[in-house]
Write a structure and sequence with these properties.
This protein is mainly α and 475 residues long. The protein has 20 helices and no strands. It has two domains: 50 residues; 369 residues, no CATH class. The longest helix has 34 residues. The radius of gyration is 24 Å and the shape is globular.
Amino acid sequence: MNLKVEKRLQGFIISLYILIFIANIFLGNDILLKFNIIVVAMFFMIFLMKSNKVLLITTVILAIFNGFLIQELHFPSSIQYSVDILTVFIFIKIIYSIFQHKRKINNSMLKYIVLIFVLQLIALLINNYSTLPFIWGIRNLYRFFIIFVGFQYLDIELDYRNVITFFKYFIMMQLGVIIFQHFKEVDFDNISGFFGIKGTGITLIFLMFICSFWISNYVHKKIKISGILIFLVIIFAQFILGSVKASFFYIPILLYIMIILSVITNGNYKVLLKKVILFSIIIVGLVMVSTTLYLKVFSDFSSAENLYSKDYLKSILVSGSYNSDGNTINRLSGIGTINDLVLKDYAKKIIGVGLGNASPNKYESLQGDYFKKYSQLNYNWFFIPYYVLENGFLGLGIFLLIFIIMLFKSFKIYNQVKKEEEKLLVFAYIGCVITVLLTLIYNSALYTVQIGYFFWAISGLLIKFENKYKYVKSV
């Protein structure tokens, strides 16, 4: 924003102040306070719009803490839309930069996003449903792609050390909040720290993201094995207090995969066996201790044998219903239920019932026909059945292809980047992609602003690195 525009805006606001002050005297209403709030908000937005970095990072951080602000600190529920407003500002800055700098969005993944959108338009025409749910569906999905392009296209440099510092403070504060919630909450699904009501699944995935950064630090000799142990103790304490039993499976799998990949990417196969044995001891020990502590804290399982039994795994993965109401689909069997019960013709199996047509919403005008009819299935609890329902098996295949391509890109980019901090970030990103792929069957957290905004922001930085070193190579 140039100096002339700023002066005009300041003059306009001063004039408004005078008019509002006079109106406040004659009307006797406290409209001056409301006007002050609006003005502060306007200046805050102007400040954000001046700096790409501040705007992008503020949006992601606000997204991460959004649920906590509303559900725990009792901020107005309308604050959830502040993330949408900032995302619109990011979109405006992208469009403005395109026209100002005459520079194309050089993002190798855009063609897949465009293809998904074309299929969704076809689904809208074939299923012939209201455009309001479709617009709501666009809001739910494409805000993540705006973040993706924003972090790739707009000028921003992230200091990796600042990211790690943020995570250090975050996990310690998260632990404190979870301890408080553990003794306060009756429903253990609400013991999720900063991630709000029913946020334990989000907690697991976000802490797996952070775990990827810690493993990256260890692999690149930024921390010792003791640093990993302390970190794992802290996050497992949160999982135990929050009754996040899935962490006993997911964290070991993530650790094994990343340690093996670290050896493969660095080509040092001699240390592979040593590291695998070392981490096997750490993982087995942590899971055993965590299981023992969990059984002492909670009484829902009589023994470790029951916790890890086939019957329990079957009940949370493939049994007829995920919960006791008998209606909710399950994680692995849910996609079959959706296919047989809802996607009855071939067109729907291929492209789905349409974006937004099955998306949850409390406002009836924004509810699609399929949400009204099948919402009791709670398909939106799990990403894959939810995505297949709206976008079909072809849409799911293209969406998964994006993650797979990004994973392979990250290996290539890891070998191209020169700066140490860039290598650390790219290797951590590899762990983030693996986390997403592993947990797609677990819940639908990828659709939440907490997980979605963070993941797609890091994805944008990866494409930024790809373009940077592609340009250097061509020169």
